[in-house]
Amino acid sequence: MGASDILKIAVCDDEMAQRRQLQFIIDKVRPGCEIILFESGEAFLDAFRPGLYDLIFMDILMPGMGGVDATTRIRSIDASVPIAFATSSQDHAMEGYKNRVIRYLMKPFDSTEVSEVLELAASMKHTQGGVSIRVGGKDMTFPFEKICYVEQSSHTLYFHMANGATIQLTGKLDNIEAQTPDDSFIRCHKSYLVNLAHVKSVDKDLQVLQMKDGDSVHIRRESVREAARMLADYSLKNL
């Protein structure tokens, strides 16, 4: 199994026996996955960041913050991470639909059903595409479509996300640029890498990209015409 096939999985359940059982099944049906266990919704959210996990197994009924509330919080900052509900009933089907849950797993867990969820998450990971950056010894992945633009100041990167969040990490913009498609991302300035999907227009007089969220991103003078051409080409391809 290559590095790109390894899934980073969070299991959130207040019962240790359930956490361990699910961990055992995952290790058996898809060896090599990185599994992090959490005993509460609060503990999970304290550690959660967009792009950190490829799949989340979320128990619905937990003391304190339940799985439905935790999932709603997740969706407010990460619209795409696959989430599977673990439950002993299907009474929360509507909440699962609203939060775009990919699967309900009934307890006790069935290895075949768990395997199907893992395969679905792996498929979603490979088709989505994104930028990876190493943080604290672990790889974080940001889907291309969720990135508006990336800004560099000294050795700090600021990922400006489509949901309005700004994520601050240490790294080099050159390394991020190398992972992005040439026809949809533009290095318009030494300090900015921009996703054309989130650009509204090019202001040639002010030498800025006007973003759909209202932000303005500087363009180096010699790149203004190229930026306008790339945006026009991108728009034609995505009519």
Give a verbal description of the structure.
By secondary structure, this protein is α/β, with parallel strands linked by helices. The chain has two domains: 3-128, Rossmann fold (3-Layer(aba) Sandwich), CATH 3.40.50.2300; 131-237, LytTr DNA-binding domain (OB fold (Dihydrolipoamide Acetyltransferase, E2P)). Helices cover 31% and strands 31% of the residues. The protein contains seven helices and 15 strands. It has a five-stranded parallel β-sheet with strand order 2-1-3-4-5, with helices on both faces. Helix 2 (41-47) runs parallel beside helix 3. The longest helix has 18 residues, at 111-128. The radius of gyration is 20 Å and the shape is elongated. The two termini are 38 Å apart. The mean pLDDT is 88.
